[in-house]
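so the lab meeting is tmrw and i was supposed to have these ready like two days ago... anyway. pasting both below. for each one the top line is the aa sequence and the line under it is the structure tokens. i havent really looked at them closely yet so no promises
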Amino acid sequence: MITWGPVALSEIAYQWHKLLGQTYCLRQLSVNTSDCQNIVVTEPPSAFGKLLKQVVPVNPILLEPVNKDFAVVIEKIGVNSPVIAGVPVTDPTAYNEALKSGVAQAAGSALPSDPRGNVYLFAHSSLNFWQLGQYATVFNLLGKLSAGDKVHLFYQNQDYVYQVVNREVVAGFNTYPLERRTIEPILTLQTCDPPGTTINRLVVTAKLIQVV
């Protein structure tokens, strides 16, 4: 049961922020804190949330990219993690070690700077989190993403902005999301499903819409 602890905590935190109308904000998108606050603070969806907001200070949670060499930021679910490049997907020892330091970019998949191709990022979702360091559960809330949500992939001091176009669950042995051919630059995010198991894979696909 301890495996499910981080999943539950992630869900509780997500629902708490939602109740208050509080969201994450990528700091670099605003000149100052007040601009960011004006963008992201919304009215709570319920009367209880509005009442709670009167007694609990609500400010946007600012996200500064952990680095701009290679990192992923997903404002909707508060992800802010380094990306470890060139991690072999068939070597558990190698990828478990890499996931202690961030999200893994699958060896052989595209890089954000490639004119077309599939940037494939993967991370655990709570499984053996106590052995895998602070980034072991970074994709716990990946299933909250839906079409239209933004994903920022920082690479070599540029911000590659992707927009989610699809979310699906595939069998654990299905390698199509990694091996598929593409005619445009896309980003694939993958984690375990259900969280804390290796039965299936949750796969989120996003297309590149802007480079800043």
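ok protien two:
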Amino acid sequence: MKTIQVKAIIVGAMLLGSSAMAGNYNFTFNNGFNNGGVVPDGSPIGLPITTNLTGMSGPISSLTMSLNVSGGYNGDLYAYLAGPNGGFAVLLNRVGVSGSATMFGYSDAGLNVTFSDAAANDIHFYQNVGGYDITSGTAAWQPDGRNLDPQSDPNLISSAPQTALLNSFAGQNPNGTWTLYLADVSSGGHSTLNSWGLDITTVPEPSALGLIGLGLGILLIHRRRC
């Protein structure tokens, strides 16, 4: 009796497990941007970029994002990512802004980074990290995450908690229209979007075959006990 029960459970679990393997989807976007990718200088209108993604199976389990911007002043930039079915992450919110001493943020021109919640350091204070890498495209940083108006008091921005991160997309359907928004909120210098990308990992819903396998296992156990 015990042998039949164990086999039934194993068969059902194997079928269910095989149907729930994670999927990984990579997308890179490097052309066709509005205004040639130029972010309007000193304007809250900004540069909205939308793209429709299809063909992915199951809800999002994790997500990272790449962003390549050249020119301008990094401390002028505000950027966010919005998902098609929920989720909102603030990628940049005037990096370096921190009270009256650095009220205009960092003056570096451009960045080429990957955003990951699991990265070791917060991009808002990247100059505080020894040997920081902001342009090679190989370094990962936590998104800024400070969900405040970029024209707020610099003290409020720098002290705000990181509440708008990439984990907000977990559990959401990844198919549909994604929006990347960039704005330059302080006059002087033009930033240009060169490319951006998404690396999305999903966990597919259990397939009908997996559910049938589990159901048969339960049925066999029930019959044996009867």
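from a quick look at the 2nd one: Residues 208-225 form the longest helix (18 residues). The domain at 21-204 is CATH 2.60.120.260 (Jelly Rolls). will dig more after coffe
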